[in-house]
Amino acid sequence: MGRLRTLLHWRSLHWKIASLVAVACTAVALTVGLLVHRSTLERSMNDGAAKAEADLAVTIERYERDGREPDGVVRDATELPDELLRRLRDRPARAAETPVTWYDSDPYDPCMWAARYHRGRPFAECIDMTSDLLTRQALDRHMWKYSLVVLGIVVPVSALAAELPHRRLRAVARTARRISDGDLSARTAVKGTGDEISVISATVNAMADSLHGRLRAEQRFTADVAHELRTPLMGLVTASELLPPSEATDLVRDRVAVLRNLVEDLLEISRLDAGAETPDTRPVPLADVVRDCLARTGLDSSFTADAGPLVDTDPRRLDRIVTNLVVNAHRHGRAPVEVTVAGPTVTVRDHGSGFPARLLAEGPRRFATGASERGHGHGLGLTIALAQAEVIGARLEFANAPDGGAVAVLSLRGRQPADTQPIGT
Questions:
Q1: In the CATH hierarchy, which top-level class contains the domain 196-273?
Q2: Any residues with CB less than 8 A from the CB of 344 and at least 6 apart, and which?
Q3: CA Rg, the chain, in Å?
Q4: Which parts of the sequence belong to the Histidine kinase domain (predicted)?
């Protein structure tokens, strides 16, 4: 059904090609038709004029031989058509013996006139051109009819012929869309035709290879840094615990704790990048899990929840996601921070300056908080939350509230009401 809708979409490429072919065929048909019509008309006029002149010459010769006026000859100037009489009078005196012709294009009684002066008086004769007119009209009708028939065949055939490159372009578009959605393994088959579509396909594939290579290099760098820092970090943690109590010791321990959290975040990201994480899903009461999560953060957040369904999810990863969202709201936004559970959806909102436009357009990026007014940090919290949401099959979206503040919405898979029985019953 979708392919049929695409095929019938009037703005699609194959219909534009078909329209271009139709316009080109129509222009060719009009040009050829006009040329044939003009050529046929000129030949008809020339043949008619020659025949009228020949008949007039025979008539004058007969008149000279027999001495009587043949039938069909007009000798009275008042009976001649005005245009023929004007031409007869305007001709030079030296050409008085040469006949003039004029075509009377009366649609019901067409004729070709030929006239000349003989012994000071006009001689004129008219031959019937009805059969010639009917022949030309029949030729025009046949040209129009067969032009329409050919156009009716060429346009659908051209639309079908354009479907093949259009299908290849759609395949390239699907591949580019998959790449933009994060599937860097997507590729388009490149046929050896060497046309522009093949060049586009090869370019998209090369772009995907380049992006995939850069992403893999970034992932390897993150994993290597995290693992290399872990050993000296453990030494720092142990050494900080041996320092005597003092203000300087508290400062050192605080910075070591920050560094330790950073390394743990980097290790978690490296595992998520490697695709080694698998969820341990089970039905859990969403509102209770979120309430316990907020209690563990120790941050002042308002909490609102309905009865709430059971959701099939990994509670450990759900706790990680909600914790990161709440901590991010407190660290980079402003109070009050509101957490709401409505059905299988968790909403975390602060009342700060909102998410930066780049984050809303491209998603969270590691080591980038996006805007100075959102505070300082490593930019890993939202990155981890988004990756963990993908692992458990949830959807995490970021937006800004109309009246100000950042809004993060986590949508999980809820269970049907018949399945939402309390745990342990």
A1: mainly alpha
A2: 286, 309, 311, 411, 412, 413, 414
A3: 45
A4: 224-416
Helix, strand, coil abundance in the chain, percent, nearest 5: 60, 15, 25
CA atoms within 13 A on the CB side of 27: 6
Give yes or no for a cis peptide into 165 (omega within 30° of 0): no
| CATH class (in words) of the domain with range 282-419 | alpha beta
End-to-end CA distance of the chain: 46
Picking from 166, 229, 243, 172, the residue whose alpha carbon sits closest to that of residue 204 is: 172
349 in Cβ contact with 401 (< 8 Å)? yes
* Closest C-alpha to 348, from 398, 280, 289, 313: 398
Could you tell me whether strands 337-342 and 301-305 are parallel, antiparallel, or unpaired per DSSP bridges? parallel
> How far apart (Å, rounded) are the C-alpha atoms in residues 134 and 125?
21
- Provide the 3-class DSSP secondary structure of residue 378: coil
Across the 425 residues of the chain, what is the mean pLDDT of every consecutive 10-residue run? Answer: 52 74 86 91 91 86 75 71 84 74 88 84 85 91 89 82 79 85 79 75 85 76 69 76 80 77 69 70 88 88 81 87 89 88 90 86 66 52 83 88 89 57 36
Mapped onto helix, strand or coil, the DSSP state of residue 346 is strand
What pLDDT sits at residue 367? 60
Is 282-419 the same fold as 196-273? no
pLDDT at 72: 62
Q: Which two tokens stand for residue 137?
A: 């009209």
